[in-house]
Design brief:
By secondary structure, this protein is α/β, with parallel strands linked by helices. About 50% of the residues lie in helices and about 10% in strands. It contains 14 helices and eight strands.
Length: about 300
């Protein structure tokens, strides 16, 4: 039997070395991540909201919008793709439906959080939580709807901010008992807290590396030394894209051309290189094989 992408991801997550999973916000960024040599891709929820809707990470995206972006990313790459499932888009039955939607488009795992809908970015203030029991129901619904037992359910808790680390750890253990495969304890404030979480939770751990966020911005080697199993980077790609685009279009506005921009920024890419990001030569070969003129 062939090894599924879900099994591949689970094996990578449980390997001795940390699994670095950069975050894509669309199919283009996913292809760039794969071509950089990473073995898996994470679909960022904040980046999806920004790129699809031009709105902040405050629960604006729907199941269908998330599934559409997920499908496009899955089709663009050959490696396993996991995603941000926010707070499940409603109650436990909404999670049940979301599980089916996301698994059917080829996603092999997601993280689900214990915030009230609509959720907020984990590094913003003012997050509100559902009860532990309600979150347990959501996890159990996801487990019930899961078709592939290797699909990875990552339980995220945002309890650290308002209820403290003790409660965040307690909730994490409850979520594991309900069927979660991995814990994402959001917004720890220092390395000592991160080490304590590793010591007190007997399960794979996800580290969320947000530039300028609350959690210490550590290297992958530092995270691995603490004992984290995987790391995601939900802002990195679309923050970089927004930064470069802002400079590019300011240059066009002020200079009337982009002729100097690429050299000044050190970002020179040829026309041919750009099209090879999309595997243009491979697509052209397929076109030559299959497209025939009508008689």
């Amino acid at each position: 039997m062939a090894v599924t992408k879900a099994r591949t991801f689970r094996e990578l997550m449980n390997a001795p070395e940390i699994l670095v999973v950069p975050s894509a916000y669309d199919a283009l960024s996913a292809k760039v991540i794969q071509q950089a040599g990473f073995p898996a891709v994470h679909m960022t929820g904040s980046g999806t909201s920004a790129s699809m809707l031009g709105l902040p990470d405050l629960g604006f995206t729907s199941v269908s919008e998330q599934a559409t972006n997920a499908k496009n990313i899955v089709l663009a790459v050959d490696v396993p793709v996991i995603m941000d499932a926010d707070a499940g888009y409603g109650n436990a039955m909404s999670v049940w439906r979301a599980q089916r939607e996301f698994e059917r488009v080829g996603i092999v795992g997601y993280h689900l959080e214990d915030q009230v809908n609509p959720k907020r970015c984990g590094h913003l203030e003012g997050k509100r939580l559902i009860s532990t029991e309600e979150m347990i129901g959501k996890i159990e619904a996801a487990v019930e709807a899961r078709e592939d037992e290797d699909f990875t359910i990552i339980a995220r808790t945002d309890a650290r901010e308002s209820l403290g680390l003790d409660e965040a750890v307690r909730r994490s253990r409850e979520y594991l008992a309900a069927g979660a495969d991995c814990i994402f304890l959001e917004a720890m404030l220092d390395v000592d807290e991160m080490k304590r979480v590793r010591d007190e939770i007997d399960a794979p751990l996800l580290a969320n590396m947000v530039e300028g966020g609350k959690t210490p911005w550590l290297t992958t080697k530092e995270l691995e030394s603490i004992g984290y199993n995987l790391a995601i980077y939900p802002l990195s790609g679309w923050m970089a894209a927004a930064s470069v685009l802002r400079k590019l279009f300011a240059e066009l506005r002020d200079a009337g051309t982009t002729q100097k921009f690429w050299d000044d920024m050190g970002l020179k890419m040829s026309f041919a290189e750009l099209f090879e990001v999309f595997e243009y030569s491979k697509i052209s070969e397929l076109e030559a094989r299959f497209v025939r003129d009508q008689d």
